Amino acid sequence: RINADRLQETIHHTCQWGAAHRYGSGPTETGMSRLSLTDDDAQARRWFAEETQKLGCSLVVDQLGNMFASRRGATSNPTPMIAMGSHLDTQPRGGRYDGILGVVAAVEVLRTFEENGYQTHHDVGVVNWTNEEGARFPKSMMASGVWAGKIPLEQAYSLADIFDPSVTVKSELQRLGYIGDVACSSAGYPLGAHFELHIEQGPILQDAGKKIGVVQGGQAYRWFTVTVDGRDAHTGTTPLKSRSDPLLAASKMIVASNSIAKSLGALASTGVFKIPPSSSTNTITSRVTFTLDIRHPDDAVVDQVQSLCFEAFKDIAKQDGRGVQVNWTLDTDSPATKFDPDCIKMVEKAATDLVGSDGWLHITSGAGHDSVNTSARCPTTMIFVPCKDGVSHHPEEYCSPEDCALGAQALLESVVNYDRL
Amino acid sequence: RINADRLQETIHHTCQWGAAHRYGSGPTETGMSRLSLTDDDAQARRWFAEETQKLGCSLVVDQLGNMFASRRGATSNPTPMIAMGSHLDTQPRGGRYDGILGVVAAVEVLRTFEENGYQTHHDVGVVNWTNEEGARFPKSMMASGVWAGKIPLEQAYSLADIFDPSVTVKSELQRLGYIGDVACSSAGYPLGAHFELHIEQGPILQDAGKKIGVVQGGQAYRWFTVTVDGRDAHTGTTPLKSRSDPLLAASKMIVASNSIAKSLGALASTGVFKIPPSSSTNTITSRVTFTLDIRHPDDAVVDQVQSLCFEAFKDIAKQDGRGVQVNWTLDTDSPATKFDPDCIKMVEKAATDLVGSDGWLHITSGAGHDSVNTSARCPTTMIFVPCKDGVSHHPEEYCSPEDCALGAQALLESVVNYDRL
Ligand SMILES: NC(=O)NCCC(=O)O
Ligand SMILES: NC(=O)NCCC(=O)O
């Protein structure tokens, strides 16, 4: 049995690094801003290293700062460890559970093994994946993507901070001393399986009154950065027909992408919208950059939304005044994923044992997770627990202590089931 | 006769302070970024003070940093000076002529008087008005507005930097030592008349092949800051119907304002669009702030565009998901203006003498100018000269040396005509 109080204490202990966006007077009533590879992230990493080493784990840091902590099993010829993985980085206005719960619960599972003198058959351990959020360096699940061979290492290294192009993943890893010797790949550090506990981040479990989601896979998504170029001009003296107004065009593009996605039952969202700092009320700006995030459980629908959007964008670029230039880059491409049937069965069994067969449901993840990447290289699945009103990527993101504990217990039992398999 | 070469040299000499946005290799092929009450603006102000004092002018700085340089006329009982005024501040991506030409040409007129030993009947002088652009502190023609009694002094003092709320007009005036003793009002420093030379900033003169615009007045305009509040949410797990997405709503509002203005032959423009710095690709942002600039020669049409826009905005705020909150503030309100018939006649005469009656035309200003404010308190008009392709508020803004010189000569002759009246 995991220790529910210790789990809570540890979650909030680690949230001292990067606590932000207070919304209430209680000690834990803040959100988090612990962007990947910042000083706060480094503090959380140091905690992770110390804590797992205290539990007798051996720790490996790979070339991208992924941290693998492994506890020996009984078997004499060691096999790749059964991993419980998630991430300690957060969104800039994120909460205390997204990613954090998965890593801290995994540490709690190891603590429970340790204090009960429980020996697994295989090696079992925890992974802290670098830059899952893609918030600071705009490629989500970055380091698990490199580990899985989906993203070239050099491409990840050269990713720049979204607001400060002078800073890259590599320069921050170097600054913090987090470039390890081991290759970031499934050959460099193979895993036997990957289980990830995570808050659902959506409303499905809460609405259905269920306690555990057994995750079948993840929906597809793609991220783009769209750049619209126009020409500075005076707002009072420049007739509409003489303008080349990127802000008007970008607005039309965002409206169009939303309506295209809606018509196909998909999602299209813009989270970042930037103009040059030298902008003013009475000047048409020269350039707009915005992000576009397209999602659907079916790869083909993501394709379709994408091509309809870019057709519409090209059309909009010609619509007003002298027109604008539009260009885009693909930043993240995460196809639809199906998780491993054996892993899923182990989680189903754990869930039924804990909450009965009526207490859980099958679910497909709306968000990307490191598990989407690991599933390309090792048997993988995830366990979801409900979060209040399905809210995440928000300071008030909340998962009750009972649900955190239930999730951690389900994680423990899934791993034990899999280890026995 | 003004000295055309000296005029050019002086324009570009003063553009050493705040030169920015190089677009060619020539020494003058840069734009300007000399925002009001920055260190660069202070350097230009010091040049203005020294130069006018060298010409024997007495210099007065009022409470808002407006600079009045006055040269004695022949009359024994002094009357309020005939002013030639404009501004030395620029847009963040502005050019070398907007405002600057008007002030430097006025200094050139005084130099021409001085070297010819020409004595006017009345006192004649130059005004450098503070924060005409409204680019940094978002109220255009701010200090002439206070002088004219249209804007309360305290309201101007408390205006904050559009990107740094900790800095205000007052704190910057204090920092630079530019709060003078004289009241900023037409009682504190009365003017007998106000003539302003300015680039047209539009394409009308160039298209008509005319050299001088005799300005009849200015079109009406209003500036608003619109704030749209929503709620952070995950872009992958939050169904469209559960969202409160201010970025989508703001985009729709900008598209709507453009189409409303278009349908009424008016202008509506958004130059500034801001989201919180803690934004990311996979998070719906919590707040968007954007500016709206509505213009038309007729006050009633500006009214109409405004009310249609805000009706549409309220409607859009309810359209998607859980809706958003929309609020706005009025930042600048500049009604349509008619300039003084006597002043206009003096400019018409000067223009006819210089380029013949076919060489100039009557024109209404699309942009606001300090003259719009002074015209409420003293006889006022303006002289326009063409600028290349009507481009301004852009680094490549350009007025040929010949047109600059012709404008300065027209300014001189208009003032002489008026002085003799
Ligand atoms: N779980 C999560 O928020 N991951 C970030 C990648 C995504 O946007 O889906
Ligand atoms: N002339 C000029 O650009 N003035 C600033 C006020 C306006 O936007 O019209």
Overview of this protein structure:
2 copies of one chain form a homodimer. Chain A contains 12 helices and 18 strands. Chain A is of the alpha+beta class. The mean pLDDT of chain A is 97. In chain A, the strands form 4 sheets. In chain A, strands 3, 4, 5, 6, 7, 8, 16, 17 and 18 form a 9-stranded mixed sheet that branches. In chain A, strands 9, 11, 12, 14 and 15 form a 5-stranded antiparallel sheet that branches. Helices cover 35% and strands 23% of the residues of chain A. Chain A has helices spanning 4-14, 39-54, 100-115, 142-147, 153-157, 169-176, 204-208, 246-263, 299-319, 341-355, 370-374, 401-420, and strands at 19-22, 30-32, 58-61, 67-71, 81-86, 124-128, 191-199, 212-218, 220-229, 233-234, 267-269, 273-274, 283-284, 287-296, 325-334, 337-338, 360-365, 380-385. At the A-B interface, strand 10, helix 8, strand 13 and strand 14 of A face strand 10, helix 8, strand 13 and strand 14 of B. Bound molecules: N-(aminocarbonyl)-beta-alanine (URP) (2 copies). One N-(aminocarbonyl)-beta-alanine (URP) sits between chains B (98, 132-134, 140, 201, 367-369) and A (234, 236, 282).
In short:
Chains A, B: It holds the Pfam family Peptidase_M20. By secondary structure, chain A is α+β, with helices and mostly antiparallel strands. The first copy, chain A, contains twelve helices and 18 strands.
Q: Tally the beta strands of chain A.
A: 18
Shape of chain A: elongated
Secondary structure class of chain A reads alpha+beta
Low-confidence parts of chain A, pLDDT < 50 over ≥5 residues? none
The end-to-end distance of chain A, rounded to whole angstroms, is 20 Å
Q: Biggest interface, which chains?
A: A-B, 76 and 76 residues
Q: Give the biggest beta sheet of chain A.
A: 9 strands, mixed
Oligomeric state of shown chains: homodimer
| DSSP helical segment count of chain A | 12
Radius of gyration of chain A: 23 Å
Mean pLDDT of chain A: 97
Task: Give the proportion of residues in helices of chain A.
Answer: 25-40%
Strand content of chain A: 15-25%
SSE string of chain A: HEEHEEEHEHHHEHEEEHEEEEHEEHEHEH
Bound molecules: N-(aminocarbonyl)-beta-alanine
Keywords (chains A, B): Hydrolase
Pfam family, one (chains A, B): Peptidase_M20
Family (chains A, B): Belongs to the peptidase M20A family.
InterPro entries (chains A, B): Amidase_Cbmase (IPR010158), Bact_exopeptidase_dim_dom (IPR036264), Peptidase_M20 (IPR002933)
